[in-house]
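Late entry, evening session. Most of the bench is empty. Finally got around to the prediction I had been postponing all week. Sequence below, unchanged from the version circulated by S.P.
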Amino acid sequence: MVMFLFLLLALVVVVGAVTLAVVGGGEGGPLSSVPPERYAQPLPPDRPVRRADVDALRFPLALRGYRMAEVDEALGRLGAELSERDARIQELEARLAGARAARAAGPQDRRPEDPADGGPEGPAAGPTPEDAA
């Protein structure tokens, strides 16, 4: 029984000492609140995200893993920028296909201008009034 009381008293002393150290005891006063950890190199807000930005992105660990809000924000931004790039690529590919089609169809639709090629004034144009005289 004496041993139990001794252990109980020791436990009370240890808990009291820890409480004093945390709340206000010691030389420096109470423990200062630590600012939440943020990632050191967030995604740049003033330019498009590059591959190096994504490679350098490191999320800080929180009590239970990563901070979900920061991860969601970064992934949302990446998704939006990738969607914009995909739309731009599709637009440019459609323009390129249209330009190629116009260039391929262009020479076939033009009428030859050279008379030797059978143009409007060439041999295929028929007799002229000068030939009849």
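Two things to note before I forget:
The longest helix spans residues 68-109.
The chain has four helices and two strands.
Will write this up properly tomorrow.
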